[in-house]
Amino acid sequence: MKAAVLGAGSWGTAFAKILGDAGNDVVLWARRPEIAAAIRETGCNPEYLEGTRLGERVTATASATEAIKGAELVVLAVPSQTLRTNLGDWAADLTADSTLISLMKGIELGTTQRMSEVIVEAGRVAPERVAVVSGPNLAGEIALEQPAATVVACTDIDRATRVQRAITTPYFRPYTNDDVVGCELGGAVKNVIALAFGIAHAMGLGDNTKATLITRGLAETARLGVALGADPLTFSGLAGLGDLVGTCMSPLSRNRTFGEHLGRGKTLEQAQAATRYTAEGVKSCLAIRDLARSHGVEMPITEQVERVCHEGVDPKVAVAALMSRSTKAE
Ligand SMILES: NC(=O)C1=CN([C@@H]2O[C@H](COP(=O)(O)OP(=O)(O)OC[C@H]3O[C@@H](n4cnc5c(N)ncnc54)[C@H](O)[C@@H]3O)[C@@H](O)[C@H]2O)C=CC1
Ligand SMILES: O=C(CO)COP(=O)(O)O
Questions:
Q1: Residue 143's domain is classified under what CATH number?
Q2: Is the CB of residue 128 less than 8 Å from the CB of residue 99?
Q3: Which residues form the Glycerol-3-phosphate dehydrogenase NAD-dependent C-terminal domain (predicted)?
Q4: Best mutation site among 80, 151, 278 for ligand 1 pocket (most ligand atoms within 8 Å of CB)
Q5: pLDDT of residue 157
Q6: Same domain flag for 22 and 64
Q7: Are residues 162 and 234 part of one domain?
Q8: Same domain? 221 vs 276
């Protein structure tokens, strides 16, 4: 198949390699012409996943129109909060019946929309044309071809199967699922819980605390998911527990690392200055909190992460607030 990958950051770059290794012809769009030129000339992205050879089937351009032209698969790999603006520029170029694949793990500020909802609205495409790829997929490990699995979620299960076939490689194993809501929420909320995990790690808290954060973090994710119509089973799968555990445990996670800065006492601004990559949970925690409140769902860990990130609350105060909530049945 012909595929366009829009966004040449860490995950867009690794995903272009997956698509190429799976036998597709891939055009990777980079915002900066010099990055696109370097990828064409050297076969590597000089800014992300340095040294990773993308393979002969991957080329690059700084023209999104050129990348999208004739593409049956259009992969979106930009930061969640810029997607709507980006799609405004790209919508007119999309081929009828192409499949749009979302790699993003965030919730839009203001609208509280999931990324597939933003794609439907801003890309002017039918919901069954949107597939979500989500799972424990740290780009740095996948670039090294370390075995990983993922989920392709789409309401049109035949389309999910076509995408599954198009991204299967000896090191990347996709499963299909028709629960788009659950897969997207799992990916977005785990970033917020990974911030909490990073904060706890930097505070010197131990494995009981960390296991509790993962388990209760998953419980609040599933609570919101069920309120939005997700299948609760999705949260025990790769896009739920799998991604949550993978992200929290990994020093490669940008969200966990950002949390560690906060846990060491840095302010939001200081943590942002120390971070080069997108840590989606920092903004999405606001949108997830608002989404939960509007559905009457309690998300105590998300609430406290938002307070630490955006209201300057001391992490120790946030921990005390979580531990002093009223006791209840599990
Ligand atoms: N890196 C990873 O391991 C994984 C990331 N993801 C998700 O993939 C999405 C993309 O993240 P990464 O590639 O990791 O981020 P990144 O921080 O590595 O790269 C972000 C890319 O977006 C571009 N960008 C920044 N502002 C932009 C704008 N206004 N318009 C267009 N492009 C812009 C940057 O130039 C860069 O190419 C996020 O939602 C993230 O949660 C999902 C799975 C794994
Ligand atoms: O989503 C990811 C792994 O599945 C990457 O997590 P980070 O964005 O925290 O690095």
A1: 3.40.50.720
A2: no
A3: 179-319
A4: 278
A5: 98
A6: yes
A7: no
A8: yes
Q: Are 231 and 182 spatial neighbours (Cβ–Cβ below 8 Å)?
A: yes
Of the residues 178, 206, 223, the one at which a domain ends: 178
Supply the pLDDT for residue 278: 87
- Could you say which of 132, 147, 178 is where a domain stops? 178
CB 18 within 8 A of CB 54: no
Q: Is 11 annotated as a binding residue?
A: yes
pLDDT value of position 276? 87
Query: Residue whose CA is closest, atom 10 of ligand 2?
Result: 253
Rounded to 5 degrees, what angle do the CA atoms 183, 187, 193 make?
135
CB 23 within 8 Å of CB 55: no
Looking at the fold, whether 212 and 307 belong to one and the same domain comes out as yes
Beta bridge partners of 175: 151
Report the pLDDT value the prediction gives residue 19, as an integer from 0 to 100: 99
Q: Which atom of ligand 1 is nearest to the CA of 280?
A: 41
Q: Which residue in 2, 17, 69, 190 is the catalytic one?
A: 190
Q: Is 243 annotated as a binding residue?
A: yes
pLDDT digits (tens, 9 = 90+) for 266-310: 999 999 999 989 899 999 999 999 999 999 999 999 999 999 999
pLDDT reported for residue 244: 98
- What 3-state DSSP class applies to 101? strand
Closest ligand 1 atom, residue 137 Cα: 44
d(CA 192, CA 198): 10
Going from the Cα of 138 to the center of ligand 2, the distance in angstroms, rounded, reads 5
Domain that holds residue 268: 181-323
Q: Does the global pTM surpass 0.90?
A: yes
Give the CA distances from residue 101 to residues 120, 129, 131, 310, in Å, rounded to whole numbers and listed in that order: 11, 9, 5, 31
Nearest protein Cα to ligand 1, atom 24:
78
Residues 189 and 174 reside in one and the same domain: no
Q: Are both 107 and 144 inside the same structural domain?
A: yes
Catalytic residue at 190? yes
- Complex prediction ipTM: 0.98
Residues 172 and 230 grouped into a single domain? no
- Shared domain for 148 and 196, answered yes or no, is no
Q: For residue 105, say whether it is annotated as part of any ligand binding site.
A: yes
